[in-house]
Design brief:
The chain is mainly α. The protein is about 75% helix and about 0% strand.
């Protein structure tokens, strides 16, 4: 389980760095500065959660069952939250209007919050 979590963390972290560089350099002439700032928000939250998964994969304080739950909350949460932000920030570059799927952004945010709350509740229940 820990190896799987750390592998996902590494992938999310690497993708965040690539997208951050793309946002800083590749998108500069294509979208407005406000949209670049929005794009960067997606990158930040993706990286924060890659680091969260690194912690999770390296701690013995959490059971494998809870780790698996948190892992999936983070994967889906990042896909919905950061993924939708990337597309919304670049909306004018596509023929599809990504504002139509903007509802998944807050759902992704709730899933990310749920991951942190799951960790919190699990740790509170322990009697160490």
């Amino acid at each position: 389980m820990n190896r799987k979590i750390i592998l996902v963390a590494a992938i999310l972290g690497a993708i965040a760095i690539v997208l951050g560089a793309f946002g800083a350099h590749g998108l500069k002439k294509l979208i407005e500065p406000e949209s670049i700032a929005v794009f960067e928000t997606g990158v930040k939250y993706q990286m924060y959660h890659a680091l969260f998964l690194l912690f999770l994969g390296n701690t013995a304080l959490v059971s494998d069952k809870v780790k698996n739950t948190i892992l999936w909350l983070v994967i889906i949460g990042v896909a919905f939250f950061s993924g939708s932000i990337y597309f919304l920030a670049c909306n004018n570059l596509f023929s599809f209007d990504f504002k139509k799927i903007g509802i998944i952004t807050p759902i992704g945010g709730l899933l990310l919050i749920g991951a942190w709350i799951t960790l919190f509740l699990h740790l509170i229940k322990q009697k160490r």
